[in-house]
Amino acid sequence: MARLRSRTIAGYALVAVLLSGCVNYPNSDRDGDACRPQQLNAEVSGPGGIGGPAEYRITIRDQGGACSLLGAPTMLEGVDSSGLIVRVDTTPFTQDWIAATTTGRAANLSRDASADVVLLTGIASAAAQGAAPSRTFQSLRLGIGHGVLDVAFGQRPEPADATVSLPCDVGMSGFYASFPAT
Q: For the segment 114-127, what is each residue's pLDDT rounded down to a tens digit?
């Protein structure tokens, strides 16, 4: 009986790894408190990318004491022009996309260090790769722990267009340290 139980547990663990997309998020390298949405601000920039999926980058900055963002956002929502809040389905990045679009380092925030969450359209689902419908949002909301962080618009290719268009399902990274400013 114990042998059957251990095989069942191992089977569940394997299924969990397969369903998770084999994504390993970096651990914090310091003893810091978990970030709370109230101490953070965020802005989205993009879309970037040429000849591939559109990339939006949400940059998160700390306005309080040093803290860490571990794992991934708990949800992504868009707010349309009427104020309706719409849940956006997300798919975790594969290790290849993590390596291509993030630093891969833990998101330990301070006044001098920020974190990024990357959104990619067109890779998350077969529907997103075709002529899938998309929604245009005036702003975004990102789940952090049990709270919500409002995401303002930052640097845009076309400053007059302060909207984000996302398909029904987008690829979303976890929290990673931002690339150094150039």
A: 999 999 887 544 44
